[in-house]
From TrEMBL:
<dbReference type="Pfam" id="PF02826">
    <property type="entry name" value="2-Hacid_dh_C"/>
</dbReference>
<dbReference type="InterPro" id="IPR006139">
    <property type="entry name" value="D-isomer_2_OHA_DH_cat_dom"/>
</dbReference>
<dbReference type="InterPro" id="IPR036291">
    <property type="entry name" value="NAD(P)-bd_dom_sf"/>
</dbReference>
<feature type="domain" description="D-isomer specific 2-hydroxyacid dehydrogenase NAD-binding">
    <location>
        <begin position="108"/>
        <end position="286"/>
    </location>
</feature>
<keyword id="KW-0520">NAD</keyword>
<comment type="similarity">
    <text>Belongs to the D-isomer specific 2-hydroxyacid dehydrogenase family.</text>
</comment>
<dbReference type="Pfam" id="PF00389">
    <property type="entry name" value="2-Hacid_dh"/>
</dbReference>
<protein>
    <submittedName>
        <fullName>D-2-hydroxyacid dehydrogenase</fullName>
    </submittedName>
</protein>
<feature type="domain" description="D-isomer specific 2-hydroxyacid dehydrogenase catalytic">
    <location>
        <begin position="25"/>
        <end position="308"/>
    </location>
</feature>
<dbReference type="InterPro" id="IPR029753">
    <property type="entry name" value="D-isomer_DH_CS"/>
</dbReference>
<keyword id="KW-0560">Oxidoreductase</keyword>
<dbReference type="InterPro" id="IPR006140">
    <property type="entry name" value="D-isomer_DH_NAD-bd"/>
</dbReference>
<dbReference type="InterPro" id="IPR050418">
    <property type="entry name" value="D-iso_2-hydroxyacid_DH_PdxB"/>
</dbReference>
Length: 310
């Protein structure tokens, strides 16, 4: 059987143990990246296709005459036409739960950056401002103690729960938003109430029609003045121009994002302007610890092996 991995560059496989994956099929072709114009030819004779972000639409799936299994090297399945795959009897497997430790520590690191403003103080030290200080320290940016503050968690699956646990270790009280499904669970609170009480909000919900641009101008206006927003979920959850406005106005105390609506972002992206205060952006790398990537690859191997047993 023939397998194709379309975008290995997203995994940096030279840092991982790939021997188990290579042993699952008779032959593998590995490509660092695959442009849309290259996809059809590369999957034409494949029995198994691995993709992280490469899109497999209906036409590609229908024309891949030998294709039997699509393995997504991620949790999200939005880059696959699932209905087309189902109609052709092609199995689609994703991997869940591999990034919890990596993403939760990154989320808390972003929260700590907003609270301590260490990134801005560090930049000032490198620019020589500490050397120019008339006293032993600098107090240019306000610092917030997180102990005793409230963290609002929107999306309380595995990732939200891990973030909540770390926040509690910092002495924070965790507020959990009601599910978007409408299911009532104890300990949850209405979103409007949560927004008015939380000192920081952390997003961990999926991107759906219901949550698309959830964080819009009204959402931001409902937040406590000076509060923080952290998004390590999906860029599409945030109305990005509205976020830029809320930061510039000072109503929002800070925001830290690991995801944007377009990745990589264009140079003129509204959140890449240099006049937005206390905004931290990391390049979608909350998940990239070596341990996390190895768990992901091992999950793909498990999916292939389980499929072969059918």
């Amino acid at each position: 059987m023939h397998g194709v991995f379309l975008d290995t560059l997203t995994m940096k496989p030279e840092e991982l143990d790939t021997s188990a994956l290579e042993s699952t099929l008779d032959h593998w072709d590995f490509f660092e990246t695959t442009a849309p114009a290259e996809t059809a030819q590369r999957i034409a004779d494949a029995d198994v296709v691995l993709t992280n972000k490469v899109v497999l639409d209906r036409q590609l799936i229908e024309n891949a005459r030998k294709l039997k299994l699509i393995c997504i090297c991620a949790t999200g399945t939005n880059n696959i036409d699932l209905r087309a795959a189902e109609e052709k009897g092609i199995a689609v497997k994703n991997v869940a739960g591999y990034t919890g430790s990596s993403l939760s520590q990154h989320t808390i690191a972003l929260l700590l950056a907003l609270a301590t403003r260490w990134h801005q103080y560090n930049a000032d030290v490198k620019r020589g401002r500490w050397s120019q200080s008339p006293v032993f320290c600098r107090l240019d940016y306000p610092v917030m103690e997180l102990a005793g503050k409230k963290l609002g968690v929107i999306g309380y699956g595995d990732l939200g729960q891990k973030v909540a646990l770390l926040a509690e270790a910092l002495g924070m009280k965790v507020l959990i938003a009601e599910s978007f499904t409408g299911e009532k669970k104890p300990g949850r609170m209405p979103l409007a109430e949560l927004l008015s009480e939380a000192d920081a909000i952390s997003l961990h919900c999926p991107l759906t029609e219901q949550t698309d641009k959830l964080v819009d101008a009204d959402f931001l206006a409902a937040l406590k003045p000076g509060s923080f927003l952290i998004n390590t979920a999906r860029g599409g959850l945030v109305d990005e121009p509205a976020l830029a406005d809320a930061l510039r106005s000072g109503h929002l105390g800070g925001a830290a994002l690991d995801v944007l609506s377009q990745e990589p972002p264009p140079a003129d992206h509204p959140l890449l302007a240099d006049d937005i205060p206390n905004l931290v952006i990391t390049p979608h790398n909350a998940w990239i610890s070596r341990e996390s990537r190895q768990r992901l690859l091992d999950g793909v191997v498990d999916n292939i092996r389980e499929w072969k047993k059918r």
